[in-house]
Amino acid sequence: MSTPPVSLEGLIGSRRLWRGQSVQIAPSAQPTGHAALDAALPTGGWPEAALTELLLPHAGVGELRLLWPALARLSRAAPEHEAGMIVLVDPPLLPYAPAWRDAGVALSRLQVVRASGRDALWAAEQCLRSGACAAVLCWPQRADDRALRRLQVAAESGQCLGFALREARAALNPSPAALRIAIDAAPAQLRVLKCRGGNAPTRAIAFAPESAAVDRNPIQRPRPLVREPEVGGAVVPLRAKAARPETSRADAANDPPAAYPPAAVEAVAARTVATLPPLQR
Fold it and tell me: How does pLDDT run across 182-204, given as a tens digit for each residue?
């Protein structure tokens, strides 16, 4: 004996079946600056007050070129007193001030936090939560789901854009980040793995830096970094470092830094001040 068909409307009306309601996600007020990526994201830009993960095969595949348009806009917000700080927590290489300046980022709003391991995660969380930052970039090493969730909650609390730059293999593990993007080197493309507010696009997005020369030197020298007097705890000013001729990777690690000639850039970088309150444990 066959079972008589049951209408869908009847099941819903008798409350035997629950129908989820679609959630309206407001458009983002923080466009990425890359039209193809904005068109692919449900909100049309970076998720606000949230953590975004960028998964990289190695450093220098265009991750800074991807972020610079938004960072430049945030660092030059008007009126000036409303512009938050752009903080780099434990970058793998020393930021190269002329490249950041040429990308439109106001160096007076750029800060570097030197830390390592769990201290770097703690510093990133405090900066995200402080309310004094417009964006925080961090390079967490061996961060687990609990550590990433703390960063996500801190970004929500401080109404800050958070960016965690991690190794590509981290894509195998779940993440509480609102947006996850894998950057491929060959071919140069972006793959959206997860996005809040809709399904991730199935097709990769072509991504070719406009200027290979600028992208090649966004950061100057590998660790160890030159120590400078600390200002306000762990926050130190960004300073322009020596420009060097093109060398092989093997020679680059051993080249001594030379004096950086353009006095104008050095003067701009020297005016950088630490406006964040001291970080207290």
Answer: 999 988 999 999 998 888 888 99
pTM: 0.69
User: Under a CB-based contact definition with an 8 Å cutoff, are residues 225 and 114 in contact?
Assistant: yes
What structural domains and CATH numbers belong to the chain?
47-242+262-270 (3.40.50.300)
Residues in the chain: 281
Map 55-98 to HEC letters. Answer: EECCCCCCHHHHHHHHHHHHHCCCCHHHCCEEEEECCCEEECHH
Tens digits of residue pLDDT in 266-276: 333 333 333 34
User: How far is the CA of 23 from the CAs of 26, 42, 159, in angstroms?
Assistant: 10, 12, 21
Residues 6+ apart with CB under 8 A from 268: 97, 101, 107, 108, 240
Is the torsion defined by CA of 160, 166, 122, 148 positive or negative?
positive
Buried b (16+ CB within 10 A) or exposed e, 61-95: bbbbbbbbbbbbbbbeeeeeeebbbbbbbbbebbb
3-state secondary structure of 260: coil
| H/E stretch holding 120 | helix 117-130
3-state SS record for 25-56: CCCCCCCCCCHHHHHHCCCCCCCCCCEEEEEE
Cα dihedral: 269, 275, 277, 280 (round 10): -10
